[in-house]
Amino acid sequence: MALTGNSIEEKIYNFLYSRIKNAFGVSGLMGNLYAESGLVPTNLQNSFEKKLGYTDGTYTTSVDNGDYTNFVHDSAGYGLAQWTYWSRKENLLLFVRSRNQSIGDLESQLEFLYQELSTGYKAVLTKLKAAKSVREASDIVLTQYERPADQSESVKKKRASYGQKYYDRYAKTTGGKSSMGKTITTGFISATINGINVDSSIKCNADNYNSNASRNAAFVAMHYTGNSKDTARANANYFAGAGRNASAHFFVDDTEIRQSVALKDTAWGVGAKSYKHASCRNANCVNIEMCCTAGNYRISDKTKENATYLCAYICNLLGITAAEVDTYVLRHYDVTGKNCPAQMAGSGNAEWAAFKARVKEILNGGASSGNSGSSSGTNGSFPATPFQVKVLVSDLNIRSNPSMGNNVKGQTGKGVFTITEVNDGWGKLKSGAGWIYLENKEYVTVLGSSSGSSQPAAPAKKSVEEVAKEVLRGDWGNGADRKKRLEAAGYNYAQVQAAVNRLCK
User: Fold this and answer.
1) Rounded CA Rg of the chain
2) What is the pLDDT at residue 443?
């Protein structure tokens, strides 16, 4: 998955949280990584810089280029976890080379770290996932994973204090997605979602929510209203009264989407005395209620479909990608254990899995997640083939045939592409790679007739530093796919990777 975050530490937190799903465990682990390397993936053990005659950067480059061949056996600590023992360094080297990445690549080191925990340190990982405090998690990592010579009480306290800072910064205030989740200043949205105009004419009583100038939101929490049969309008009317002690941002039924609480304000949807989820709280989530439109306390298929489009719309606002839906789109059940939405609750629920799959499909370009019912949101007609389109996102799926049900063969990356055939809103790539969905204006701009130029056309050249920053944001994909895209766009992969390493320092 592409790393998300505005800083190295934020990217590390978000990656680890997506795997461990326990803020105490993640923070305790990060405190130890900070003590080892300062969270610098290219960090060479300080005492070896003079001994070997290398800096962090020159050591990394020399290992990558093959100029330095004693990486495995030089006994020098390296990387986030300061891997030192020869077999662990050998495994790290083999792992990053299998991904066609630099030995100092942040994402590769995080993937390797988690692989180590999942295989050779299973007991440590289990304890991190169940940790009840930062200190507990930190001590586990110190004594059972890092195992430095000094494991004294003073060292334990110091490392736990580092971890506590990450917990306070990312878990306590804003949840697992951290403060980057997104700072929300938006009030009531004006949008057409799945052909429905969002209606905010009936607003929640101020007695039922917390008013904010802005807030940091990272999660979407899905609910059901729990009535025998009801409508979005009826719920909006109810919460317009005082003293309800609860609220939600949106109510959805078969024909309406009602916004009751402004996005910048805190709705009372997942409050509880105890929590099942480590980070999601009222303060950092958007609450969506699905009405029981099918009767007998059940949600109709049409209401669920409307809710998936609304959920995808909110995901776009918060910066939640399709790859992150499993982490940041939750049920009330996931947050507190409440049986809500009842028909989607419980472990391994197929209906909930299908709901999330549909949200991912919309986010990946299956249909517009914004103004899907408005002509301004779609590309409705296309010029005669061949013609060119500009892809605006880095992860538009390429499918084997013109249908959402077909296999994903890869992603396009951003750039200009030539279309040789159109079928029901899908365009066939001249390269023969497959088909891409053309109708969503948020992802694709139709440029017009093609003169037959090669596909994809290289985008306007940017500086190596600019491209390196885009790589760190995840705009160019990962591994061999990243290298392929960069070289296809006319960039020198080695130069870009060296710039990435510099920025990671």
Assistant:
1) 25
2) 74
Cα–Cα distance for residue pair 212/66, rounded to 1 Å: 55
- Sequence-ordered alpha helix ranges (H) in 329-397: 332-336, 350-361
Q: Are 5 and 178 in contact (CB under 8 A)?
A: yes
Q: Rounded distance, CA 409 to CA 397, Å?
A: 7
Task: Name the residue among 8, 39, 22 with its Cα closest to residue 137.
Answer: 22
Mean pLDDT of 64-84: 95
Mean pLDDT over residues 108-129, rounded?
Answer: 94
Name the residue among 376, 295, 280 with its Cα closest to residue 331: 280
pLDDT digits (tens, 9 = 90+) for 148-192: 888 999 899 999 999 988 887 777 443 334 433 567 887 899 888
Predicted structure pTM score:
0.44
Whether 242 and 288 have beta carbons less than 8 Å apart is answered as: no
- The one-letter amino acid at 432: G
The helix or strand, by DSSP H or E, that contains position 415, with its residue range, turns out to be strand 415-423
Number of H helices, E strands in the chain: 17, 18
How many other CB atoms are found less than 10 A from the CB of residue 481?
14
CB 260 within 8 A of CB 252: no
CB 279 within 8 A of CB 176: yes
